[in-house]
Amino acid sequence: MQTLAHYFKPDASIIIPCKNEGGNVKMTVDSLMAALPSSGTEIIVVDDLSQDDCCRFLQADSRYANIQYISLPGLGAAQARNYGAAAAKGEYLVFCDAHITVQEGWLASLLSTFNRPGVDAVSPAIGSIANPHAVGYGQTWNARLETAWLPAPARMETTRAPLLPGGCLAVHSSVFQQVGGFDRGFIVWGHEDVELSLKLWLFGYGLYINPAVKILHLFRQKHPYRVTFDYVHYNLLRMAYSHFNNNRVDKVIALVKPYGKSERIIRNVLKSGVLDQRQDYFKRRQRDDDWFMSEFQIPF
Fold this sequence. Notes:
Elements: H1 4-7, E1 12-18, H2 24-35, E2 41-48, H3 56-60, E3 68-72, H4 77-87, E4 92-96, E5 100-101, H5 106-111, E6 121-128, E7 135-136, E8 139-141, E9 147-149, E10 159-160, E11 168-172, H6 173-178, H7 192-202, E12 207-217, H8 229-243, H9 246-256, H10 262-271, H11 274-284, H12 289-295
Domain Glycosyltransferase 2-like: 13-179
Keywords: Disulfide bond, Transferase
Organism: Pelotomaculum schinkii
């Protein structure tokens, strides 16, 4: 016999990947629960092999009985998000870091952005928990492909952004599925959100910032698990081979070469099947990387 829960289709699914977050997961979940309506939204916590029991509270307290908990064996940030998305039932997927706080009404305001023509993904303004007046409004790349926060848009209007920060990113579930989600070949951590943003633009979709909605984010000095340049550079190179023309791939290789191990990392990336993915993406995309860099005045 099917239960009512089986037929429940929420408007939105909030997906929270986490790994060794300490008390931050509970802080985030409590903030979300206090700000969300009583129905229409599901929360999914994806625990990617935490070692600190940061998610134990979910099983220990009946208040969290409706939260879906997924345990993974350490697949990395991109895959944790994809697993959460695969379990989600919502029309919209809202990816949130496990160290944020929100205000009442934030989700309805954020999702209302999708009523505007051309909006396929959207992020709110993101401030710092330590300094709420320090706020970023989407991101871009500089000449070294380093992310930089954008200032407030003119007249605080909803506006396009080249890159949406993974700290809070909402996307229509059908769009997410069409582009294949976060890169399934990424490892550990690094470039998940920018790769998805780039892919969405190249596949013909539109990304926006709604500056009227603001969440607060804990910006940490270091990761609560091991992240090395090798991991980050692997993902960067995989993104480059997937989306960039040959000249830009060479520029990315030049960026990582001073750190050492670049030849080994390149070999491993090429063994991962990225050239097949490149061929598939180049056939399917509606815009190229020249368009993207020119459209958003990125000097790379």
